[in-house]
């Protein structure tokens, strides 16, 4: 009985589903029928006249300098169907509509699948369009993505199929589809990308062209997604094989061939790498078809004079950099830290040099930053209570606890897993402050700083600064601080902008506003500043990176990082294998990041970034400082307060006591600050001795430091060196006294502008060094010679009827005393 009920329930479910599908089908057919009657079929001969294409124009930040006119030079040459190569036809059908010759202009299943996908994703990402539908869409209809427009497209496609042959429709499609770079139709595409007629295209060339129309800007062979284009071409070739358009032998032969495109045309574009990025953003916002045909006016962030000067400087130094350092490419990003505006972007030495992959944008590529990542590690360390004065030992140190302190692996262990980095000059300096370590880019203290800050905490700090690519901590380990991860020049320059902008981060941006062809505002950028770290930490980093005295031992007094009369913060970075050289520098108004290296990752000459990049980076910064409005200087940081001597920079010991300088005894509450001297019991240890002796790093840090201390005559002291007696000089009994104050003339009240002579009577065991006079709390003058008298012009303002006269005296050992009297005003 239960089984019978279940069967009836299943039958009812299927029956209800069938009724719903039938009802939906009837509604759909009725709707289609109404539209079919209402829509008039246009003449195919007039298809190209049905759309008025307006080019989108990209401008600089002033809105007056045209950087690029998207399809400002539209190229189209219509050719007969017979002149279009068979491989182009087959490749296009294989990619776009493999049932083209069997359907009637519309594929219901593909349409249903697209509808289902769009419902799941909450948009109109997929259309399920046939080639016939695409012809209709590109020639007759607007680019709006609505259900009504989709139904119109289907009806016209069905009518078109009844009137014209498949070959005629395919011919129209291949003669009007956009292939990118202003080329419309296969003939213009063949001429643009291969400098030949379509009929002369080889199979591989045909396959690459067929791969473009899906996203012409994204897959452009002159853009930054060439690898993605290669992958799509391989996919196209595979589809042709799977569908029987080519044989396996043809597939195996063609896949071994190497494509060669014609050189890109250089006319009519300013800042090409920047423009490509802008165009990518536009395509993401609106879609390629809309951008190509709707006539937008795009105002970008680009500063054209700075851009052109940057390109000029890069070109000027290119030959000497290549000859002297074996670096074949350079890249630069300049931005405004207060807004994130990209002011200049040079993605390679020469965008149009195809042999050097000039169209590849290095500024957005991931490269190892070397020491350029150090400021973020030090900022993380300052969050953990370290200070610019905290001192670490720059000595040969093994950082793998499984290896011996001398850097050798135990027997039967892997020596390659030991890690003991060198400094750039292969020298070690003993105790150095974090200020000196960061300013001089010392490696060993920096690795220790990373360990003390914490790897995860340091990565979190980098993420706070907008660096999104460091997501594999197990791979980096302690090498992170020396560039063990990969970042882009664009993100790193933007991250430095947060230091420049007093701890406030702004994401980089390319576009200020977008207007349509009628001047209506479609988009206006708004910055979203966020404070990402304590301001005093950011100010401390700025102070260190702009401290020329601190970096002199490494870079010299007048290095390319130094700007006389101007504080510019700067940091270099060079990878251990010399594949990447960086300089990032900034003021509160501009950040400029520069890189040199080789696209194929081959190493340069063994020189640091201070030689390879800094000279021409300096020229760009000098131009920016001179020619752009600069409003501010760095805000000084407040010194970090720390009770622990080893955090304040005392490396000789961690147990502190305070002496009175005069008596040599322990200071007391009355001992003046100027006469107090902080001392430690000498015990030379690593900082881990004082904060975490259980650390697995402790032994390997401690051994070389103890050896260094012994070699330099620093022997341990014990607690017996601390005096047992206390300061008996700075006591209340020994303080100087003012017994009386005589005023001449002596009166019961004084005029507001009257002059008086003040004669204090002083008693002191020690020589009086100074006497200070105050009227109503305001300092008047100091007298440093006996008898310490002073003539005062009262000059009393307001309507007060009395005033206070205070005298403060100081003896030669820092004791002090004071006395005040009240005088009446008439």
From TrEMBL:
It comes from the Bacteria. The chain crosses the membrane at residues 12-39. Signal peptide: none annotated. Residues 331-589 form the Penicillin-binding protein transpeptidase domain. GO terms for biological process: cell wall organization; peptidoglycan biosynthetic process; proteolysis; regulation of cell shape. It catalyses: Preferential cleavage: (Ac)2-L-Lys-D-Ala-|-D-Ala. Also transpeptidation of peptidyl-alanyl moieties that are N-acyl substituents of D-alanine; [GlcNAc-(1->4)-Mur2Ac(oyl-L-Ala-gamma-D-Glu-L-Lys-D-Ala-D-Ala)](n)-di-trans,octa-cis-undecaprenyl diphosphate + beta-D-GlcNAc-(1->4)-Mur2Ac(oyl-L-Ala-gamma-D-Glu-L-Lys-D-Ala-D-Ala)-di-trans,octa-cis-undecaprenyl diphosphate = [GlcNAc-(1->4)-Mur2Ac(oyl-L-Ala-gamma-D-Glu-L-Lys-D-Ala-D-Ala)](n+1)-di-trans,octa-cis-undecaprenyl diphosphate + di-trans,octa-cis-undecaprenyl diphosphate + H(+). Keywords: Carboxypeptidase, Cell membrane, Cell shape, Cell wall biogenesis/degradation, Glycosyltransferase, Hydrolase, Membrane, Multifunctional enzyme, Peptidoglycan synthesis, Protease, Transferase, Transmembrane, Transmembrane helix. It is found in: Cell membrane. GO terms for cellular component: outer membrane-bounded periplasmic space; plasma membrane. GO terms for molecular function: penicillin binding; peptidoglycan glycosyltransferase activity; serine-type D-Ala-D-Ala carboxypeptidase activity. Residues 69-240 form the Glycosyl transferase family domain. In the N-terminal section; belongs to the glycosyltransferase 51 family. In the C-terminal section; belongs to the transpeptidase family. This is Uncharacterized protein.
């Amino acid at each position: 009985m239960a089984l019978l009920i279940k069967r009836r329930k299943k039958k009812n479910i299927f029956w209800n589903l069938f009724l719903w599908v039938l009802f939906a089908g009837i509604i759909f057919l009725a709707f289609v029928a109404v539209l079919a009657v209402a829509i008039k079929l246009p003449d195919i001969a007039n298809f190209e006249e049905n759309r008025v294409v307006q080019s989108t124009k990209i401008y600089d930040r002033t809105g007056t300098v045209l950087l690029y006119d998207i399809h400002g030079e539209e190229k189209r040459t219509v050719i007969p169907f017979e002149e279009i190569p068979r491989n182009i036809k087959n490749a296009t059908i294989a990619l776009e509509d493999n049932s083209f010759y069997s359907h009637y202009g519309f594929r219901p299943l593909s349409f249903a699948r697209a509808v289902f996908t769009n419902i799941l994703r909450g948009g109109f990402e997929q259309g399920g369009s046939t080639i016939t539908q695409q012809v209709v869409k590109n020639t007759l209809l607007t680019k709006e993505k609505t259900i009504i427009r989709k139904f119109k497209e289907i009806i016209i496609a069905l009518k078109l199929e009844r009137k014209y042959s498949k070959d005629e429709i395919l011919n129209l499609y291949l003669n009007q589809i956009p292939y990118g770079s202003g080329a419309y139709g296969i003939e213009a595409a063949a001429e643009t990308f291969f400098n030949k007629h379509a009929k002369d295209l080889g199979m591989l060339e045909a396959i690459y062209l067929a791969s473009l129309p899906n996203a012409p800007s994204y897959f452009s062979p002159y853009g930054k997604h060439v690898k993605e284009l290669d992958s799509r071409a391989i996919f196209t070739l595979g589809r042709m094989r799977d569908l029987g358009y080519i044989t396996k032998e043809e597939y195996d032969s063609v896949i071994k061939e190497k494509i060669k495109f014609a050189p890109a045309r250089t006319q009519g574009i300013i800042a090409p790498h920047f423009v490509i990025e802008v165009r990518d953003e536009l395509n993401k916002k609106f879609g390629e078809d809309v951008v190509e045909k709707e006539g937008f006016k795009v105002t970008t962030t680009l500063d054209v004079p700075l851009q052109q000067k940057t390109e000029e400087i890069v070109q000027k130094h290119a030959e000497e950099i290549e000859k002297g350092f074996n670096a074949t490419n350079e890249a630069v990003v300049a931005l405004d830290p207060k807004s994130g505006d990209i002011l200049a972007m040079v993605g390679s030495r020469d965008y149009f040099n195809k042999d050097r992959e000039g169209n590849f944008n290095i500024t957005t590529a991931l490269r190892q930053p070397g020491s350029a990542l150090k400021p973020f590690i030090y900022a993380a360390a300052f969050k953990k209570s370290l200070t610019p004065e905290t001192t670490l030992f720059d000595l040969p140190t093994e950082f793998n606890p499984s290896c011996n302190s001398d850097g050798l692996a135990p027997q039967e262990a892997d020596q390659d897993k030991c890690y003991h980095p060198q400094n750039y000059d292969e020298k070690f300096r003993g105790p150095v402050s974090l200020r000196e370590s960061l300013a001089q880019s010392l490696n060993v203290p920096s690795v220790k700083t990373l360990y003390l800050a914490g790897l995860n905490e340091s990565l979190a700090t980098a993420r706070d600064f907008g660096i999104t690519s460091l997501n594999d901590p197990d791979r980096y380990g302690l090498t992170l601080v020396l560039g063990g991860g990969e970042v882009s020049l664009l993100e790193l320059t933007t991250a430095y902008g947060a230091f420049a902008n007093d701890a406030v981060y702004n994401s980089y941006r390319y576009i200020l506003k977008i207007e349509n062809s009628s001047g209506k505002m479609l988009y206006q950028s708004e910055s979203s500043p966020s404070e990402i770290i304590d301001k005093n930490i950011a100010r401390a980093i700025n102070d260190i990176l702009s401290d020329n005295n601190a970096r002199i031992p490494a870079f010299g007094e007048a290095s390319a990082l130094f700007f006389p009369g101007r504080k510019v913060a700067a940091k270099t970075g060079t990878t251990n294998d010399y594949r990447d050289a960086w300089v990032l520098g900034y003021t509160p108004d501009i950040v400029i990041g520069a890189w040199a290296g080789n696209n194929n990752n081959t190493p340069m000459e063994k020189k640091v970034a201070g030689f390879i990049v800094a000279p021409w980076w300096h020229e760009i910064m000098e131009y920016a400082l001179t020619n752009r409005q600069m409003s501010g200087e760095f805000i000084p940081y407040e010194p970090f307060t720390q009770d622990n001597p080893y955090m304040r920079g005392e490396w000789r010991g961690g147990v502190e006591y305070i002496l009175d300088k005069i008596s040599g005894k322990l200071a007391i509450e009355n001992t003046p600050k100027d006469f107090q001297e902080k001392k430690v019991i000498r015990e030379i240890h690593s900082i881990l001795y004082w904060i975490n002796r259980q650390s697995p790093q402790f032994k390997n840090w401690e051994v070389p430091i103890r050896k260094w201390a012994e070699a330099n005559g620093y022997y341990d002291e014990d607690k017996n060196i601390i005096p047992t007696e206390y300061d008996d000089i700075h006591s209340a009994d020994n303080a100087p006294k003012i017994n009386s104050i005589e005023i001449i003339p002596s009166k019961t009240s004084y005029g507001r502008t009257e002059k008086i002579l003040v004669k204090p009577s002083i008693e002191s065991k020690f020589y009086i060094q100074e006497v200070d006079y105050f009227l109503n709390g305001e300092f008047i003058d100091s007298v440093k010679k006996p008898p310490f008298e002073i003539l005062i012009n009262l000059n009393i303002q307001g309507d007060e009827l009395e005033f206070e006269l205070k005298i403060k005296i100081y003896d030669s050992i820092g004791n002090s005393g004071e006395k005040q009297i009240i005088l009446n005003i008439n």
